[in-house]
Amino acid sequence: MVKFHLPAFAVLLCLMSASAFGQSPDGASAFQIHWGPLRVNPTIALTNLGVDDNVFNESDANHPKSDFTMTVTPAADVTLGLGRASVKASIRDDLVYYREYASERSVNGYYKIAAIVPLTRLSFNVGADYTSARDRPGFDIDARSQYTDAGYHGGMEIRAFGKTFVTVKGSQSSVNFDQDAVFMGASLKQELSRVVTIGAVEARHELTPVTSVTLDVSREVDAFVYDNLRDSASTRILGGVTFDTRLHGTASVGYRTFDPRDASVPGYQGLIALADVSFATAGSTRFGVQVGRDLQYSYDSQQPYYIQTGATASFTRELVGPVSGTLRVGAHQLAFRGLIGQTPQEDRIDVVTTFGGGIGYRLAGGMRVSLNVDNQQRNSNLPGYSYGGLRYGTAVTYGF
Predict the structure, then answer these.
(1) In the predicted model, what is the mean pLDDT of residues 250-264?
(2) Cα-based angle 274, 279, 282 (whole degrees, multiple of 5)
(3) SS3 of residue 122 by DSSP
(4) Is 25 helix (H, G, I), strand (E, B) or coil?
(5) 8 A C-beta contact, residue 62 and residue 70
(6) What is the C-alpha to C-alpha distance for residues 394 and 383, in angstroms, rounded to an integer?
(7) Which CATH fold topology does 43-399 show?
(8) Which of 127, 198, 279, 298 lies most in the core, judged by the most C-beta atoms within 10 Å?
């Protein structure tokens, strides 16, 4: 029996209404829905229409399983203007289908809403987000696991000087795994369900209308629901820069101190970084890179966290007319830390590499079709935990 999924139905309704309410007078490019102060930008995508030759990320010794798969993703961005204030929301549902392995089918929902109230020298924002998904929650967990992540946030920004702004903000989120979410014999509900509370102060200075620098100081408290051994507090100091030209995106680097509540869990003090930057030439070439380094919690109670360091890069170039080609490559290292005083053993290090590419064709009306091939390889000193997998298929994206 198929369950009725209200957010997905709402997005599909928007998609069907787009041509009736939002086509531009000249009939060109994308549709956009307008109802007075309400604007809706809907999209729909068909991704992963093809073959996954290692559905469960198994090692060769376990005889990896192959299956036909596809994902349909209706989504919409919504903006409601209320004078100078506005309310913004985004809705996305991933409808994941596997032909043979029904256990891997899922409906993954991602929802966000925020209200922004700008005043003369002061602005406020408040919002909430909710995720309900059955997916791989991290690089170290290869089983698709059901979980929810519900949170809220708020902040106040003050224009301290002409081009300098100071923001005080806070957030809290609750991560909860399903009772049946198990990986490598570990209950993810017992090991990873937690409440995350963050308070931060950020200073931002606009160097130019399209470039700004930031300094962010935050304090994070992680309270685990079932395993108090993992409770911790962290302090982060990050300096960053934001671009909005041909060089577009954000990049930040800083320092984190991680203080566990339990003395048997080793602390961490060291470098962290986060970047998502792209560069477009005056012609038809685009280069993008994402870099990250930070601490992540592990499913393994004997190795409660790892330091994830990695980068992915993509290179896209228009080849002939509407045809473009893309290359992708990435590498991530997971350096696990064991409990203090346990039987001496070599700290586990996993390395995950990805590479792939695709050919895309841009059609009229905002539609893009692409053929993609991607390979992922994991190497680990944990027996039976190394694997490789190839995924290939077609993707279709349509923006209304």
Answers:
(1) 96
(2) 170
(3) strand
(4) coil
(5) no
(6) 34
(7) Porin (2.40.160)
(8) 298
CA-nearest of 152, 193, 140, 144 to 300 is 140
- Amino acid 7: pLDDT: 45
Q: Residue type at 46? A: L
Contact 373, 394 (CB under 8 A): no
- Residue 151 pLDDT > 70, yes or no? yes
pLDDT higher than threshold 60 for residue 3: no
- The Cα 352–Cα 121 span in angstroms is 47
Please tell me the distance from the alpha carbon of residue 163 to that of residue 170, in angstroms, as a whole number.
23
Alpha-carbon distance values, 315 to 285, 292, 327, 352, 359 (Å): 8, 19, 5, 20, 12
Please report where in the chains the tokens 């017992």 appear, as a residue: 190
Nearest-angstrom CA–CA distance, 289 and 291: 7
| Token pair listed for 338 | 């064991």
* Predicted model pTM: 0.86
Amino acid at residue number 7: P
Token readout for 136 is 């791989």
Which tokens in the block code for residue 171? 């957030």
Instruction: Please state the domain extents for the chain.
Output: 43-399
Asked whether the beta carbons of 132 and 150 are under 8 A apart, the reply is no
Q: What angle do CA 87, 17, 98 make, to 5 degrees?
A: 90
For the chain, what is the radius of gyration of the CA atoms?
23
Which residue is it, tokens 């000087």? 161
Residue 216 structure tokens:
């962010």
Can you tell me the distance from the alpha carbon of 111 to that of 214, in angstroms, rounded to the nearest whole number?
27
